[in-house]
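Our preliminary data section would be incomplete without showing what the modeling component actually yields. Below, a chain of 343 amino acids is followed by its predicted structure, encoded as tokens that our downstream tools consume directly.
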Amino acid sequence: MNTAAKHITAKRLSIAPMMDWTDRHCRYFHRLLSKNALLYTEMVTSAALVRGGALHLLEYSAEEHPVALQLGGSDPKELAKAAQLAEQAGYCEVNLNVGCPSDRVQSGSFGAVLMKTPDLVAECCSAMREAVDIEVTVKCRIGVDDQEPKEVLPDFLSRVSAGGVSRFIIHARKAWLQGLSPKENRDIPPLDYDLVHAMKGEFPDLHLSLNGGIGSLKEAKAALNAGLDGVMIGRAAYQRPYDILAGIDEEIFGDTGRVCSKEVVRQMLPYIERHLKDGGKLNQITRHMLGLFAGQGGARIWRRMLSERGHNSGAELVLEALSHITPQVPELHHRPAHLRMLS
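Predicted structure:
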């Protein structure tokens, strides 16, 4: 299956772009757990790419596909140039961030503050659409500050879709630009899933994905079965990667079998060794793997060893920590016979 076809299929379940979390090492690790889920980069600003020339921010491994780039910005011409760079780098999608509420993002006039200027968002998206052949999408909130989501969200979707966007990922919470930290904005404003479902009824031709508070594949499947086109999972996929990602291919995409958690570690070793050979640090990769064995015997030792010694150790530490893991029996029942022996 080519990259474009993979991207079309992968829209059904994606892993959220998360600052300081979903870097290229994280995405490589996540791809070993699921070959189908759509992965996103951390947010990269258009200014960093176009004015700053920070093209290293676009680097990724070919194995990560299907992978999308999330952009932050509000200048249509600059975003168009950044989108072209993303297309040249091989990304299958460019996503515009209209959801991040941090002070730094607000000061740059992008992120969630753009919920207040849907016509500008539409102009930005139209400029990107004209500049590239890959898909342009938007990740947004249901509103900000004192906006009334039932009024703001449908108006936003109508105006921005007129700019050529047909796919939106909606974080089902308002964002408070003053008074709440980014972390608090992920937890305190109440979720309104019903509103997102209502938008699918009002805009049946748009591809709408639900984001925010999804903590299990059971919840993701419920949203899909209720009529939404996709689900984006954030922190749960990062904090409990095996619990979430290892079941995606089977439960969401209908593939059979899933990889053994210990086998994933073994598959990471060549990647880790290349990174170390290039002068990198072990913990730059293993920090993303700390939650791999959540709920399994030896998980605490695994986390402690990698956390305490990962800054100045080699790949042998990973194997040493792995030797303390006792996989749960149910996990083995889902593995192909040739992989069960490796556990």
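The radius of gyration is 20 Å. The chain has two domains: 3-251, 261-340. Preliminary results of this kind motivate Aim 1 of the renewal.
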